[in-house]
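Today's session is about reading a structure prediction critically. Students often jump straight to the picture, but the first step is always the sequence itself: look for stretches that repeat, for charged clusters, for runs of hydrophobic residues. Only then move on to the predicted structure, which in these notes is written as discrete structure tokens rather than atom positions. Here is the chain we will use throughout the hour.
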Amino acid sequence: MDYVKLGSTGLEVSRLCLGCMSYGDPERGGHPWTLPQEDSAPFLHRALDAGVNFFDTANVYSNGSSEEILGDVLLKAVPRHEVVIATKVHGRMRPGPNGAGLSRHAILTEIDASLRRLGTDHVDLYQIHRWDPTTPVEETLEALHDVVKAGKARYIGASSMWAWQFAKALHLQDANGWTRFATMQDHYNLLYREEEREMLPLCADEGVGVIPWSPLARGKLTRDWDAATNRSERDEFGKTLYRDSDERIVQAVARVAERRGVPRAQVALAWVARNPVVVAPIVGATKPHHLDDAVAALELELTDEEVAELEAPYEPHEVAGF
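Below is the predicted structure for this chain, in token form.
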């Protein structure tokens, strides 16, 4: 496993980040496809054995149980300083006022709750899960700065939003001397490349590390277009992200993979990872070969001709994933 700096920071992370949305109590999160702790633990151990030190979760994943599983398994397996733990804040954690969003109240409440569930005194990366239009962004940014200064987070990051919103946030952080966003976790894969227009160039210019979510398009790039999984049949959000014309891209991935003699997942992930602004794609794993393919993809170098073949069928999309 190779390790790279996280954006412009000095923090070293593996070139793969294990996403932990699939690990959680299926009775708590409304996602019947998530894996309880006894089934999740082998994947976390397998990632550690492969050299992965970067793990991403969120407070809303399975209503907090993803954080509980991640903290319990990791911190029993390795010393705290050997892993980079990222979590997120924004989504609704309880009914009623102040149960969601990015107000100062919500951020300071939720960071403490996340730390309790993870069983640690700090997270390495604390991310806003989305933009909160109901809270002044200055309030959000100052609260995040205070979280860092309190030692509860080492770095902060953002997730899917408009590039103008991210540029505004970075400007306000610089103008006020607040801790700067180190990362952008956005939606980016062969089926959805709208981030190439503004967000990725902005991140490159500002020294922000990109850690894309869904680099395999929720698995669509790894199988035939009409093939379904337990998750895909119940993933209502995922059904809003892609369209039928994207099948041509899936077919291109299949052709390149067949010629190379490798699984489709390796081709699709190698395409994402080759972008120099991408630090570490966030990959999920619910079968042993998922991690094996992800690690192998880092060694797969696509030719210019293969890249052109993969990119040629793309058509502009409406913005999705915010």
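Discussion point for the tutorial: Residues 122 and 152 are 4 Å apart (CA to CA).
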